[in-house]
Amino acid sequence: MATESHGADEGGLVFHPMDQFIVKPLMGDGPVSMFTVTNSTLWMIITVLCVIGLMVVGSSRRAIIPSRVQSIAELAYGFIYKMVEDVTGKDGVKYFPYIMTLFIFIVFANFLGLLPRAFTPTSHIAVTAVLAMLVFVAVTVLGFVKNGAGFLSLFWVSSAPLALRPVLALIEVISYFVRPVSHSIRLAGNMMAGHAVIKVFAAFAPMVLISTGIGLVVTPLSILAITAMYGLEILVAFIQAYVFTILTCVYLKDALHPHH
Amino acid sequence: MATETQDAAGAAQAPGMPQLDFSTFGNQIFWLLVTLVVIYFVLSRVALPRIAAVLAERQGTITNDIAKAEDLKAQAADAEAAYEKALADARSEAQAIAQATRDDIKAQGQAAQAEADAKIAAKAAESEKAIAEIRASAMENVEVVAKDTAEALVSALGGSASKADIDAAVTNRLKG
């Protein structure tokens, strides 16, 4: 009885699409300190285990004719290796393990986040900002180490008319420093938005229990919408990992070859 | 059911986006760095070299197999060429034998014909000779008969002539 009155107060539907992103301790209820094992930590650990399962256990037989898991591991390897080689050139290949680390972490975190009741570490700006800043700092340092002051020619568009160059340089500098922002918000935003939208539709799904009339229309529609969004999110999960990785390769190329 | 809903509602008291709750940032960043380091070492020490080795080995195997296949193909081509050559040789030999046989038979035929021709010619010559003989003897007989008849006619007409005169006259007349 109390439930019904409570439900009626809130219009019967519970909208908390952002609750899924709350970081909370896995055990107990205390505050989240630096080393607390949280739900985010748990899914990072599961990500690591999946990476080991695919890349280490999957390839452990070293078969000439690969099993399915080994095929996937080889595909992932070939995919990123070719991307690094194509975008940054031969001299970028030695940074392949770092880029592979980023890609495999993001792709697994994204896909595991799609499991019901899972937590998505990559939906948090704290995580993606660190990933993006790692790339930004590494690429900037690498650019200066490899090219010295010549790295600054990245901002000096020598193919433009001389009068325009200072203006372009200003724009180039701003765009360079905006890179980590867009790099991180793109990933976290995509992950968060998709999951939140699914949650909103999920909140509409039990409508039929509250009001049979309108619920007969809303419930099937929202279930259909959840299904469609889920399909889209599977695509987004891969594409965002791909985009993050290829942008990393592009930034790395700029650091290795800053001349336009 | 009711308590669960209420619990969820209670948990949602945190205002705004959980992403902007800075109290969890240190925790997330710490565990993210741990995760990345672990993944990096797992990949760079174990997984990537192993996969690279497997891919290289497979590439090597494929290259070897292709080379071997090309080798075998070349051998097959050689064998085929040898077979073709043997076939052509056999065919030309057969043709030569057939030609020789044909020539042989032709030569035998020609020889037989020549022999037959020669025989026929000999026979013809013999016959001609016989005919000439017969003709000569007939002419002789005609002369003798003519002389006899002339002599008989002369004597029957009451004339008398020497045998020599009559012979000369008849001979003359026959020549004429």
TrEMBL record, chain A:
Q: Which GO terms describe its molecular function?
A: proton-transporting ATP synthase activity, rotational mechanism
For this protein, the record's CDD domains field holds: ATP-synt_Fo_a_6
Q: Where in the cell is it found?
A: Cell membrane; Membrane
Q: Which Pfam families match?
A: ATP-synt_A (PF00119)
Q: How does it sit in the membrane?
A: Multi-pass membrane protein
Residue ranges crossing the lipid bilayer per the database entry:
41-58, 65-83, 95-113, 125-145, 151-179, 200-228, 234-252
Q: Which domain of life is it from?
A: Bacteria
Which coarse location class describes where this protein primarily resides?
membrane
Instruction: Note the PROSITE patterns from the entry.
Output: ATPASE_A (PS00449)
Concerning InterPro entries, the annotation shows: ATP_synth_F0_asu, ATP_synth_F0_asu_AS, ATP_synth_F0_asu_bact/mt, F0_ATP_A_sf
Instruction: Enumerate the UniProt keywords alphabetically.
Output: ATP synthesis, Cell membrane, CF(0), Hydrogen ion transport, Ion transport, Membrane, Transmembrane, Transmembrane helix, Transport
State what this protein does.
Answer: Key component of the proton channel; it plays a direct role in the translocation of protons across the membrane.
> What family classification does the UniProt entry report for this protein?
Belongs to the ATPase A chain family.
Protein name stated in the entry: ATP synthase subunit a
Species whose genome carries this gene? Thalassococcus halodurans
Q: What is the lineage of its organism?
A: Bacteria, Pseudomonadati, Pseudomonadota, Alphaproteobacteria, Rhodobacterales
Automatic annotation (TrEMBL), chain B:
Tell me what topology the record assigns in the membrane.
Single-pass membrane protein
InterPro entries from the xrefs?
ATP_synth_b/b'su_bac/chlpt, ATP_synthase_B_chain
Residues folding into a coiled coil are 62-89
> GO CC terms for this protein?
endomembrane system; plasma membrane; proton-transporting ATP synthase complex
Any one Gene Ontology MF annotation carried by this entry is: proton-transporting ATP synthase activity, rotational mechanism
TM stretches of this protein: 29-48
Which PANTHER family does the UniProt record give?
A: ATP SYNTHASE SUBUNIT B, ATP SYNTHASE SUBUNIT B', CHLOROPLASTIC
The family classification in the record reads: Belongs to the ATPase B chain family.
Q: How does it assemble?
A: F-type ATPases have 2 components, F(1) - the catalytic core - and F(0) - the membrane proton channel. F(1) has five subunits: alpha(3), beta(3), gamma(1), delta(1), epsilon(1). F(0) has three main subunits: a(1), b(2) and c(10-14). The alpha and beta chains form an alternating ring which encloses part of the gamma chain. F(1) is attached to F(0) by a central stalk formed by the gamma and epsilon chains, while a peripheral stalk is formed by the delta and b chains.
Know the name of this protein? Answer: ATP synthase subunit b
Q: Which source organism?
A: Thalassococcus halodurans
Q: What gene codes for this chain?
A: atpF
